[in-house]
Design a protein that fits this description.
This protein has about 80 residues and is α+β, with helices and mostly antiparallel strands. Helix content is about 35%, strand content about 25%. It has 3 helices and 4 strands; from the N terminus they run E-H-H-E-E-H-E.
């Protein structure tokens, strides 16, 4: 598994979300809260990772990625690739 800090743009978030096949229900209030933090410039790395399998399936991070996509902001996030 590789863990890197990456600048996630709306286009990158959109591409990652295309591989979101098995995540839980989306909660608009969570996405909205994250968006507000991003737009205000208060988004910070906190140890949470975007988790992606070796095949490219998104396992975790859909709310954060949706917030990036919908806010139009680019933010740094930890991305773990190759997760079982």
């Amino acid at each position: 598994m590789d863990v890197t800090t990456e600048m996630i743009t709306p286009a990158i978030a959109e591409e990652m979300l295309r591989h979101n096949t098995s995540n839980r229900r989306i909660y608009k209030t969570i996405v909205s809260g994250y968006m507000k933090e991003m737009i205000a410039g208060r988004w910070r790395l906190n140890g949470e990772t975007i988790k992606i399998t070796e095949e490219g399936t998104l396992l975790d991070g859909q709310h954060r990625l949706l917030a990036v996509q919908q806010s139009g902001c680019a933010v740094f996030m930890l991305v773990a690739r190759g997760v079982d």
